[in-house]
Amino acid sequence: MTHVITSLCLRDGGCVTVCPVECIIPGKPTDEWPLFYIDPDTCIDCGACIPECPWEAIFPEDDVPTAFKAKAGQKLSMPVGTAGFTEVYDGTDHDGEAVHLTATRTMQAGEVVDLTPDTAVNAEFFKNGPGYNAAK
Ligand code: SF4
Ligand code: SF4
Fold first, then answer.
1. What residue owns the CA closest to ligand 2's atom 3?
2. Rounded to the nearest whole angstrom, what is the distance from the C-alpha of residue 12 to the centroid of ligand 1?
3. What is the pLDDT of residues 53-82, one digit of tens each?
4. Closest ligand by atom to 47 CA
5. 52, 41, 79, 25 alpha-carbon torsion, rounded to 10°
6. Distance from the CA of 86 to the center of ligand 2, in angstroms?
7. What fold is seen in the domain 3-134?
8. Whose CA is nearest to atom 4 of ligand 1?
9. Cis previous bond, 29, omega within 30
């Protein structure tokens, strides 16, 4: 198994600092790979990253929710060009550095979303995407 970062991720980066095997990689370019991603071949499923995420974006692979219930103000982030994702997010990360994302969407409180497609996206990042070289 592995852990998976879902599209609730807004690139805070706190998870990276606690991972004992350094398997969390920031996606680049952010227009195409807006999230951070977990190398499934390296993750040891320790769970240390989960409480570090201010956006509650990380789940064990088997527990990625099919019906995640959003809190007020929670956002989803997608590759630029994804239909319906037109909001700009400007925030700061764990180190106080600026985060600028241009394809986000603020959810309604109680809105239900399926986060399971993010598992395949995470795997793709390491299989054929830029993570292939970053993690090896
Ligand atoms: S702590 Fe959460 S929001 Fe920040 S990079 Fe990790 S998964 Fe993304
Ligand atoms: S579960 Fe542990 S090993 Fe896997 S990404 Fe999180 S901190 Fe790293």
1. 43
2. 5
3. 999 999 999 999 999 999 999 999 999 999
4. 2
5. 50
6. 31
7. Alpha-Beta Plaits (3.30.70)
8. 12
9. yes
Ligand with smallest separation from the Cα of 34: 1
Distance from Cα 84 to the centre of ligand 2, integer Å: 31
Q: Which ligand is nearest to the CA of 49?
A: 2
CA 99 to chain centre: 14
Give the pLDDT score at 130. 87
pLDDT band at residue 109 under the 50/70/90 scheme: very high
For residue 90, pLDDT over 60 is answered with yes
In terms of pTM, does the model score above 0.85?
yes
Amino acid (1-letter code) at residue 91: G
Tokens read off for 70: 């959003």
The amino acid at residue 119 is T
